[in-house]
UniProtKB/TrEMBL annotation, chains A, B, C, D:
<dbReference type="InterPro" id="IPR029062">
    <property type="entry name" value="Class_I_gatase-like"/>
</dbReference>
<dbReference type="Pfam" id="PF06283">
    <property type="entry name" value="ThuA"/>
</dbReference>
<dbReference type="InterPro" id="IPR009381">
    <property type="entry name" value="Trehalose_catabolism_ThuA_prok"/>
</dbReference>
<dbReference type="InterPro" id="IPR029010">
    <property type="entry name" value="ThuA-like"/>
</dbReference>
<protein>
    <submittedName>
        <fullName>ThuA domain-containing protein</fullName>
    </submittedName>
</protein>
<feature type="domain" description="ThuA-like">
    <location>
        <begin position="8"/>
        <end position="226"/>
    </location>
</feature>
Length: 256, 256, 256, 256
């Protein structure tokens, strides 16, 4: 019954395979980010305003103004991580630390901004095969798992396996198995600064994963979880005299 | 180079299948607990004094004096959980909270004492089939994972799958997959009171799992991790006047 | 914009001090649980239907039907923990594991049901003095911390200090300091089975803590966080043949 | 009884205050890093070989060879964070991810390498006053807390307070209070890649904190905890064909 303002969601895509790979074009004629956005609109309805942006947009679709008006950013990238400007990476990291939700998808484990937010290599084990992936819920009380089948079955997927070199997550929501026998922590939450992050590994340019209703459900849940109705404010150092809890003095650039 | 006193390790076994099942007797002619203890002696050498106890021993092998002289208790039980006296369960729980290490194995997920320490049902998904289990390390810096292959391959095992109804562990060390596609959080640490707990799921009366050198390595590592050289002291409520940090007054039985 | 059914909230009180202590009667003329319930109604409005129950109600206010119709249970108890029937304790634990939210307050750290859910002694350090308590947020992205001042200042409170013998929480939301120098992990989340638990330590029969608007905000946030719109279902063991992920066979009472 | 090779420990210091501030020189006539190293030698004896390095050494004391022969690196820096070369920062991060232990102390929360490993701002609340700091143990089973008084009392210290903008730690070992009322998560563990990190906040150039025996005990415990006897190997992406668990194929620089 609570009436909240709609969440402002931005689905960012690298948009490379859609232009260069026939298979991807067949599976995702509306682009991958367009497909993800459509799924969110279906499930979130009036609760969200969902837009898309792409690497080839002005300012790579990641301008300061655009980010300032984004509550939750979903990110799909794969072959063009290096093409993302360091300035854009810095902006995205700053907005995440300031409170923007961030949902890196699949091969975005190797995006510059995710690596920077994690502090690790974000490397993993992989195979471009045709494994069946089963996504099991290990946090049944987590909002992101609500309404998600146990297991969620993905008939064909690229394999991502452990060791996945990320920090221990705040919450481990999903663990996947692959028919080749590998396992992967496939749904992970992290808080960084004032922002909430959910990494979700299923989804690839060669398989119709983002068309599955269960996957749409996970992503819609994740957007609602990552959303915070707060002013964008990055944590910063503050100096407080004794008893002055609420009146921080600005740090003047030097530690004493 | 540090010289510490030897760890006093007790391997407790239900000793039921060993008496009633021909298959178990063939696999474990020296009993399951005896086999586990022998493996620990091999790997820990002079660092540990390893003894065994069984359900049919006096005081069910869990007398007050026995527990007081145990640094780390390993527990294998399956069909006779209900036969363990509630008094013995209370004693074990108290000693764990007082600092004794505790390593419940496989079907001990349903032991009274583990359920009591977890506060949950400790239920899970299972299948008495012949799955291959692969045990993957997801905490490569954890002492329990040192020297353990990635993956650790168990040719044939009973399937244990998620959802495993235990609290989120302090550290998730191992995740297993089964050839049927299920996954299981198979190596989990928990601290409770002053004690350290490691649950490890591989191991069954029908398969020679405890004969595998890699499994012996996990158990030896786990004993060393769970060991603490501390006086057995259960946490208790204490009343402190202002400034009297180190001189607790005994609680006299009434909250004010 | 999402329209959800109202949350059904039950505030349970021991109702002992209200009948026997003049000071408590002066501070809480509408009882402690009545005051807490009124605060929730103010802040949650049409999002919640808030009722109260007390130890001296039929079935101690914790009958099967009552619990089955409760989404989130808040619990205040202190001197009469032992008077709560073990049957009622078992019912509450079962409903929490089945999905009911549970919010034990202050001295409810020693309630039978909290001890049973934690598996530890739940003991702590304390002093019946007049400390100023400052409640600091260490998880600024947590829904329970939204709109809560940093620090939240409680002019006078009983001191609760570390070591607080509970399992490491899933999320540490608040840490308090007391003017005597002690610290306490004062806002902690735990998931157990299908239920979500939030322990919050501020609040005492001798101080007007539950009249503070900031405390009401924490409790309203906690109710919204602990609420899940799910059928009450306790985790249970299930047997699955290979490939039968969705058709559990009932466990027939014997492990094979 | 286990005989392990000695741990190779390097205590790195910025060595700025020691050259420019009379107060620091009086408190730490042997430099801060020299004092810390002496404390470790006292407590670890033959278990460790402890060396020191400083910002004004060749290669800033952080050459490739030096790091390759270091098992655990302690780091004290304050005013000269910016003077550390980005190449040196990259080397240290790489060695940590490859398995080197890392113990940033006090104002090293703002060192480039800690910020890079955390992915956050690492900002905090502070006051250059004369607060009494009480360090409370909230993980009594943690090896770093063994033998440490509860509380550990530091008569005079700079105040560091929450919100400390770091990821949720793997384990929260210590929480401090300050006489001004602030709290701080003062002892935190993190695993990153193959390395183990312990941040410990007490210690400042203006107070004799590193002369306190209890602080020496914490640091010696932390070194033993962060040490791993493993070959230095950074996690990296590997490609595995089905069933080839142990024979990774090198990634050739392109994702497929």
């Amino acid at each position: 019954m609570t009436t909240k303002r709609p969440m402002r969601v931005l689905v960012w895509g690298e948009n490379h395979h859609e232009k260069h790979d026939e298979l991807t074009r067949q599976i995702y004629p509306d682009t991958m980010h367009g497909t993800i956005a459509a799924g969110l609109r279906d499930l979130l309805g009036a609760d969200a305003v969902v837009e898309t942006a792409a690497l080839d947009d002005p300012e790579q679709g990641l301008g300061e103004e655009q980010l300032a008006e984004t509550d939750v950013l979903l990110w799909w990238g794969h072959l063009r991580h290096d093409a993302v400007d360091d300035d854009a990476v810095e902006r995205v990291q700053r907005h995440v630390l300031g409170g923007m939700g961030f949902i890196p998808l699949h091969s975005a484990h190797f995006s510059k901004v995710f690596i920077r937010l994690m502090g690790t290599t974000c490397s993993l084990r992989w195979r471009q095969g045709v494994d069946r992936e089963l996504v099991w819920t290990v946090s049944p009380t987590h909002p992101i798992a609500q309404g998600v089948p146990h297991p969620l079955i993905i008939p064909a997927q690229e394999m991502y396996g452990e060791y996945f070199d990320v920090p221990a997550p705040d919450e481990l929501v999903f663990v996947s198995s692959f028919s080749g026998g590998e396992v992967f922590r496939s749904g992970l939450t992290f808080s960084r600064g004032h922002g909430r992050i959910f990494y979700f590994s299923p989804g690839d340019q060669d398989y119709p994963v983002y068309h599955q209703p269960e996957i749409k459900r996970v992503l819609a849940n994740a957007v609602a979880w990552a959303f915070q109705d707060r002013p964008r404010t990055q944590p910063r150092i503050t100096m407080h005299r004794e008893g002055e809890f609420d009146t921080p003095r600005e740090w003047d650039g030097t530690l004493q």
